[in-house]
Specification:
heterotrimer; A mainly alpha (314); B alpha/beta (261); C mainly alpha (314); A: 314 residues; mainly alpha; MetI-like fold; 2 domains; two-stranded antiparallel ribbon; 77% helix; C: 314 residues; 12 helices
Chain lengths: 314, 261, 314
């Protein structure tokens, strides 16, 4: 028995594997961790870059243009001999197209979400989900093409006086574009509502619609609100559809049947041209960009807060 | 180094006033427990008594999660290394003390690669030696005959009992001095359980074994010594027959006779 | 007993059974409305695809794929555009993949929960919601002018790389989280170091999810137009970039990364901005090619996800 035990592979092994020197593997591990952390800092560097560039150029801009003028002037004509720098024109364009988009996306997106979450049998879900994924995979230039050459002519059959560039077509298409986004976030929120809440309603004899609208929807409200808010942010930041279909004339108007430029379209317009680096015309796009960033930031933060709330409830 | 001829006589590891904190909660209180060399010691006790917590102190698994703290000593013989000391690298400890978990957790690799992994990360082994070591480990885990023709198949294709034996082989491959079993059969059916218990009885002649179990009959079947824990404290540790027939402590007696659990 | 009377009344009125038909009808109407909305979404998608195919299918030809842009619509082609897209995508991946993977690994496996980690996480969530044109503005000020990288492939790759970085990080983190903690514990219990556990287990087992997220992010980048317009993509490039090899040592040339560039969506945008209808047909054809590129990448990502799901079932 002793001989067997002595020959046992276990004891041989223990002697073969000496305790390795700690220092070298330790250094390697620490080195790897440091490299990974530096990579993580890259994301911070991106933000610093964005904030830095926008702030710097906007600062240069605001040395020439008083903030009050920027916020209240009704005209945006930076390249005229008598320039006006009122951001309101661009903001109005953004707001109008966004509102039109939301008027489409919020009802449609919520409806789709409710249907998929509460009603749809397996077969319908299997068909609709890929369609929605497809809708969200289409590049925005293609949507722009669609807005200009399909939607606008179609609308012109109804309103023949509709100009070739208008905010309505652009807004409608942006709405279609963000429906998948709104519906998927809303659906996630509704699916997170526990089954027993629904069962309570059904057990009382409620129909599906009543359960959906009176129990599920209110319970998922903060998540659904997050979906709306994030949709707003997406619509505000949209560039190509408006650049192609809404026109590039900055006008202060609240009528969607007219052409107008959004903040994003203006930046594109200037970038397509030839403005010397450092000129005030060049700086206008950064001031516009800063305004854009601040607007989307507000909505992003609101959406994030709402999303966290619905995730914590259950 | 002379090898002690008699198993279950000298100490392999000893906890001295060991306490453990999860954050601010004291999970183990002043545990002083000796584990004998080439012996199977069972840790029993009701849920939450700290037996798994103690087990995981031995191979520093707690270090993987933040906010934990050790007090006291856990000595490994014959070198008298303090396992819970600050200056000891947990990685080295885990190279000498292996663990088998409650739910079998083989890697999603082949059977061969599962067993070989522990050896590969030590880097100093040739292909031929690796083949031999894998076979030896699978034989020691009583799995070789069942898998020898399909070493390169996915480990997930094995049954639950086979997977657990694979995990044992994986832990054995590196020649550990001690094997820690954390309720190794609680997820297995009775026949698989019986095979694992048989395996433990064979292995304990070569490797020191500590087995946490909530099944008292299993402790009685498999172990030489049994330690009863309750609410983070060690109540009693003695030879298994004594614990189950004539325990010294009243609390132990109440637990083993089933008055609570 | 007034309560008894109330109950008697309810019993006699049939527990509101006569409203049941009405409620069922509303339920049916609601369900139909939901189906109707989804049909609308489907028809929007179909009309978009149909319009594109109708307008552009004629222009699709080998000549179209291998010609340079031209003043004459019939002779113009997308050679430089699709080549540019491929090159820019390669550079984008080169930037986003190492940084994205490293950041995700750091956050999931190494970083402890403290304010520093929180800042990084919040920052990434924020960056994901920044409009893409803002990335273009940042790149213009920083990369083009400050770092003097010019309006080149390098700038384009860096810009889009930074744009999709948050997406890659988020997708990679989710993939890493899907690996169960028991697998990590098994590896550590064998004496593996943290890096060995990550390299030998966490990374290989999460590769499916990582690749899927990466390809989806790249397919987004393929369609990005606005930031590249801002950075200065030209849309009339009638020459190819420098070849990546050269006759003498060291045989590899990096000259091409500093060359001016164009990409598919910008070419499409340029053509659609022109008033002539023949250029619109070109734009539609370019749109079809662009759509095919995007959809192929998406399909690829889905196939990878399915294949990996079959191999590893936790």
């Amino acid at each position: 028995m002793d001989a067997d035990v002595a020959k046992s592979h276990v004891f041989k092994r223990t002697r073969e594997f000496q305790v390795p020197p700690i220092l070298v593997p330790r250094l390697k591990e620490k080195g790897i961790e440091l490299l990974l952390m530096l990579a993580a800092l890259a994301s911070i560097a991106v933000t610093v870059g964005i904030v830095g560039v926008l702030s710097y150029e906007s600062f240069m801009f605001f040395r020439h243009v008083p903030l009050l003028d920027f916020l209240t002037d009704g005209q945006w004509t930076p390249l005229f001999s008598e320039p006006h720098y009122g951001i309101l024109s661009l903001v109005s364009g953004t707001l109008v197209t966004t509102t039109v988009a939301l008027l489409v996306a919020i009802p449609a997106g919520s409806m789709v979400a409710i249907y998929l979450s509460e009603y749809a049998p397996r077969s319908v879900r299997e068909t609709v989900k890929p369609v929605l994924e497809l809708l969200s995979a289409v590049p925005t230039v293609v949507y722009g093409y669609f807005a200009l050459l399909f939607v606008t002519p179609a609308l012109q059959k109804i309103w023949p006086e509709l100009p070739g560039f208008n905010m309505l077509s652009a807004g409608l298409v942006i709405g279609i574009m963000i429906v998948p986004y709104v519906s998927s976030v809303s659906e996630d929120a509704m699916r997170a509502v526990p089954l027993y809440l629904r069962e309570g309603a059904y057990a009382l004899g409620a129909t599906r619609m009543q359960t959906a609208l009176r129990v599920v929807f209110p319970s998922a409200l903060s998540g659904i609100a997050a979906a709306y808010v994030l949709g707003v942010s997406r619509a505000i930041g949209e560039t190509m559809v408006v650049a192609i279909a809404a026109g590039m004339q900055p006008t202060l108007t609240w009528n969607p049947l007219e052409p107008a430029a959004t903040m994003t379209a203006y930046i594109v317009q200037v970038s397509l041209g030839d403005l010397p680096h450092g000129s005030i015309g060049y700086q206008t796009i950064f001031a516009t960009g800063l305004t854009l960033l601040l607007m989307t930031l507000v909505f992003n933060i609101a959406g994030h807060v709402l999303r966290k709330r619905y995730r914590q409830v259950y | 180094m002379t090898v002690s001829a008699q198993p279950c006589t000298t100490l392999k590891a000893e906890a001295r006033n060991l306490s453990f904190f999860y954050g601010n909660t004291k999970a183990l209180e002043h545990i002083s427990l000796g584990l004998r060399d080439r012996c199977a010691t069972a840790l029993i006790g009701p849920s939450g008594c700290g037996k798994t917590t103690y087990l995981r102190c031995m191979n520093r698994m707690h270090d993987l999660y933040p906010g934990n703290r050790y007090e006291g000593e856990l000595l490994l013989y014959p070198e008298r290394i303090n396992l819970v000391g600050q200056d000891i690298d947990p990685i080295e400890i885990r190279m000498r003390i292996g663990m088998v978990f409650q739910k079998p957790n083989p890697f999603p690799k082949s059977i061969y690669e599962n067993v070989a992994y522990g050896l590969r990360i030590r880097e100093a082994i040739t292909r031929q030696n690796l083949d031999q070591a894998v076979e030896r480990a699978l034989r020691d885990a009583a799995l070789w005959s069942e898998v020898k023709d399909r070493l390169h198949e996915q480990a997930f294709n094995l049954s639950g009992g086979q997977q657990q034996r694979l995990c044992i082989a994986r832990a054995l491959a590196t020649g550990p001095e001690m094997l820690l079993f954390d309720e190794p059969t609680s997820a297995l059916d009775p026949s698989a359980t019986a095979r694992i218990e048989e395996l433990v009885t064979t292995l304990k002649q070569k490797v020191t074994i500590v087995i946490v179990t909530h099944n008292m009959q299993q402790a009685a079947r498999v172990s030489d010594y049994t330690a009863f824990m309750y609410e983070g404290r060690l109540i009693e540790c003695d030879r298994t027959e004594k614990i189950f027939t004539n325990p010294s402590n009243k609390l132990t007696e109440e637990y083993v006779t089933g008055r609570f659990g | 007993m007034s309560s008894g009377n109330a109950i008697d009344k309810s019993i006699r009125s049939g527990f509101g059974r006569e409203t049941l038909t009405r409620r069922k009808l509303t339920d049916l109407l609601f369900a139909s409305a939901g189906l109707f909305v989804m049909l609308l979404a489907l028809s929007a998608l179909l009309s978009l695809l149909g319009q594109l195919a109708f307008d552009g299918a004629d222009r699709l030809s080998w000549q179209f794929l291998t010609s340079y842009p031209s003043r004459f619509a019939a002779q113009a082609g997308i050679l430089t555009a699709w080549l540019g897209t491929v090159v820019v995508m390669l550079l984008t991946a080169l930037i986003a993949v190492p940084l994205g993977l490293a950041t995700a690994i750091y956050l999931e496996e190494y970083a402890s929960r403290n304010w520093f980690t929180d800042v990084i996480e919040i920052n990434i969530a924020n960056l994901a919601g920044v409009p893409s044109i803002v990335y273009g503005l940042m790149a213009l000020g920083l990369l083009v002018y400050e770092f003097h990288l010019g309006q080149s492939f390098l700038t384009a790759g860096l810009t889009l790389g930074m744009l999709i970085l948050p997406m890659v990080i988020i997708a990679t983190r989710e993939a890493i989280r899907a690996v169960p903690p028991q697998i990590r514990e098994a590896a550590y219990a064998l004496g593996a170091t943290k890096w060995q556990t990550v390299k030998d287990h966490v990374m290989p087992y999460s590769m499916g999810g990582i690749l899927t997220g990466l390809i989806l992010a790249l397919s987004r980048a393929v369609g990005e137009t606005a930031p590249l317009i801002t950075v200065g993509a030209l849309s009339f490039i009638a020459f190819l970039p420098h070849a990546p090899w050269q006759a003498d040592l060291p045989y590899i040339s990096l000259q091409w990364i500093f060359d001016p560039f164009t990409v598919m969506p910008i070419q499409m945008f340029n053509w659609i901005s022109r008033p002539q209808e023949d250029f619109h047909a070109n734009a539609a054809a370019a749109g079809i090619v662009l759509l095919l590129m995007t959809l192929t990448m998406n399909a690829f990502a889905i196939a990878i996800r399915a294949r990996f799901r079959k191999r590893i079932r936790w």
